[in-house]
């Protein structure tokens, strides 16, 4: 079923201002580093200068004698508590503090607790670590070489750096279609290692109460309930004695999903000292040691018939997982959701094989708004389609239009087994091409090219596009889990006697406006004003259990939970109203109203003027009414929403760039983004999230890169080296929407938080390569990379320029 | 050292190496000013010193001796929010709110110096700052909105 409708009708929905903004514009947000508890101490982490080295000894005696130092924690301290290693989200373990070896530069070796943050840092210099340097594996492509250093010799019988092999699709059917294809294009693509780099780094204030045995952790946790379980498992503290409080979070993008050694060391520091311990990493620590993203080395092949119809796709991937396999993704999906790599196209057969390897780099792998590697999948297919267009002399827009899935194909089961819920891709692409004025831009491009060939001067104009399909809102539980916890989310809704409501959520905002959007959902369901709904999140003592959001799960999963809980409350209200009006519940008709303080109302069918409002019902439910058996005297409900499927938002992006062929500098002149995320609850917030994701696309395509040298030195450990787009590199985004509701979501909504990050990089890269007439060059297309590509000598981005 | 912060004079013994951002946040508990990068790239720590925006992560506290510092906490006056604060709310110029205080301090300074900036001038003014959420479009729109609202207030229309 695909119905395309306009608008976002209904009370509650619409571009209302955000409830959370009042505190932020006054500087009154409460971020982790803003917290100061009485007697609080400060932690700092000693990190490895080597990418790979054996630890002969750690001598902390000088640090311990520093007058302001209260405790020094080493790997040995943790080993004595059984905490030197922690489980990862991906069937592996990771060192908390290194005991045997360090396996990447920046790895945690020791933790100092001191009276203030400067003293804690000072004391790090007093810790004497005796390292025996070992040869590192800095290049993923050499990791499986004969004789390569074995990184994970902590694992019994391990003799190589192989992590996993995973495949999907039908190899035989794919081979058969390749064999009869009129044309096959292939391409090697690197999606280099990048970093989510939220503006607020990761941090924690751990507060262990020795008397009650209760641990309270204020922390930058995108998924507070998953963190609580991890603390229980790792530290051995019973789960009911752990309270995770995620205060305001200054951006997450997946970076704040994982469990980091600094968090655990702060907990141990608090247990040892009896005082609260704050640890907040600095920018270098964030970039060097916390969850990176991507690092996929891909070889793609695309087969087409003589008419340009795409027949099949074949892909092999080398996935650099760093020193520990710690990707935070559903545990049965070692390559995340990369399996959706057939994208938005009608492709009969596909096959891919992914091999994961260890290297001497930080662990992570799924972060930066990637939708569990849909980002890599979209980049692959959108780049391959452009390569095919170039190789066969076709216009990339026409080639796409001829191969896109049409609305009548939904629900669509892809060649790799994913069931897309709804979509209208041709309409999205047509809208985007019309907005950009495709024919005119192509004509202008031609003129610029002629002028360049005549004069040798630029700029050269390029047009690039992508038509992406996202896959967000993981569950269902039977298929998707994080460490055995099925991917569902909870909501609890209570309407107070006087009418306003409180909604408690398992997910936690990192800036995307939950306090507003979720109040709007309740408003939409019950007719209450948005301001009459308080949203509670990010406190495990006061919210129901759930897996939380990594980037786009809030609306598809928790949003559905809120809607279902509100529906249950409405049905309770119906039962109470029936008693109030002395009629059968079935004889009542619900009218959601206009969002006034009375809320919606129930009226008696066929009897005009006889009705009670939600506010009256709420008071009556708690009053002296004689309620029948089975009707509780309250308006309150909870639910756990187990999504039946992912939602599949999509969009069509067109990017126009001007490239200076003399310097390689790229100017993104225009960016048109048509997004379809189903029904939009708050279009203003949706558009804001798209703007942010588009900037990510500019960043990844043109400047962001975590690079290493041969010794495994991290070369991108500050914002002077890890470049992020500013207002100067971002054009004024041009947005449009189509609305194709999700047929299985109670509100028809789909997730959107990661759409633009997923969809925009290939549009920018395709535009730059279109401008310079180069078949392929890898991201980031910095001026140096563009200039080299123009000279026919593209650079491999992931290792340092020699 | 002595420093006037948001009109209030503070006298403190500080270590010579103490950063201004840490004096404001940790000693004076004005936590609206944020700490984002250590290298003057992100601008989350922007405050005014003697009327000029500075990145307080790369200013020593002692460099503010005898000077006047203004932080985001001082933007709201007795008659309500500063127009730039109101416009950031009206135009969805913020999401996670971490870069917002720095953006607001720059925006206020820009409009004080140039009440009718072009979009390019607005982008240049905030080009030393990073926002990871908004893609800047609504920040530019918010500053434009504030300029327009203040022009109306002055009767400049």
Sheet of most strands of chain B: 5 strands, mixed
What is the CATH domain class of the largest domain in chain B? Alpha Beta
The assigned CATH architecture of the largest domain in chain B is: Roll
- Shape by Cα distribution of chain B: globular
CATH superfamily of the largest domain in chain A, please?
Aldehyde oxidase/xanthine dehydrogenase, molybdopterin binding domain
CATH topology of the largest domain in chain A: Aldehyde Oxidoreductase, domain 4
Count of the domains of chain A: 3
- State the oligomer: heterodimer
Helix content of chain B: 25-40%
Could you tell me the CATH topology label of the largest domain in chain B: Ubiquitin-like (UB roll)
Counted up, domains of chain B total 2
- Please list the strands of the largest sheet of chain B in the order they lie side by side: 2-1-5-3-4
Contiguous uncertain segments of 5+ residues of chain A: 1-7
Could you tell me the mean pLDDT of chain A? 96
The CA-CA distance between the termini of chain B, in Å, is 46 Å
Helix fraction of chain A?
A: 25-40%
Span between termini of chain A? 55 Å
InterPro entries (chain A): Ald_Oxase/Xan_DH_a/b (IPR000674), Ald_Oxase/Xan_DH_a/b_sf (IPR036856), Ald_Oxase/xanthine_DH-like (IPR016208), AldOxase/xan_DH_MoCoBD1 (IPR008274), AldOxase/xan_DH_MoCoBD2 (IPR046867), AldOxase/xan_DH_Mopterin-bd_sf (IPR037165), CO_Mo_DH_lsu (IPR012780)
Organism (chain A): Pseudonocardia sulfidoxydans NBRC 16205
GO molecular function, one term (chain A): molybdenum ion binding
Domain Aldehyde oxidase/xanthine dehydrogenase a/b hammerhead (chain A): 26-135
